[in-house]
Amino acid sequence: MTYARAERAALSDLFARLGPDAPTLCEGWTTFDLAAHLVLRERRLDAAPGIALSPLAGYTAKVQESLKAKHGFDGLVELIRSGPGGFYGLVPGLDEAVNALEFFIHHEDVRRAQRVWEPRELPAELEDAFWKRLRMARGLFLRKSPVAVVLHRIGGGVAIGGAEDAPRVEVTGPASELLLFCFGRQAQARVDLSGDEAAVARLMDASLGA
């Protein structure tokens, strides 16, 4: 089983256990909303651009609500579980290349919004893949950072991003936790931060991620 499929299955199980009304780290979204989002991004390409482009967000929101009404929570979870859907299931390797990260992030969005949670111990190969992706895309993930950011991966590896000629903040942790931090989950990422107190506060409040 690929890492993308493993994360998909684990998230589907968690959805089924928690039900449609559990909180997530996605602001304003319950597990029902997040399940609809995941189905939309795979199976409704006409609405997917609105995930990233604010002028199209209204249409995307309408489609997301229509998916909730059509399938219900249980139906959406089964569509997620049976995936990958759409072109993710047609192009060889695309599911693993894109969705291992996507489903990890959203799996943690649900896990870490609950009252009790602890970081998972992930396979070394998956940590390596996350670090590779983070190094390649750090400019994108940290483009809105108001400070310079130095990412230190525990076990080796350094990547620099964020604002040039600005105070520097050092962020240290496993690749998976650094990835969550750079995807805008600063408050829930288990990392260590060092630097000027004001710079650290600005980084924690920044809107990071793709």
Automatic annotation (TrEMBL):
Pfam families: MDMPI_N (PF11716)
Limits of the Mycothiol-dependent maleylpyruvate isomerase metal-binding domain: 5-48
Entry protein name: TIGR03085 family protein
Gene3D superfamilies: dinb family like domain (1.20.120.450)
Stored InterPro entries: CHP03085, DinB/YfiT-like, Maleyloyr_isom, MDMPI_metal-binding
GO molecular function, one term: metal ion binding
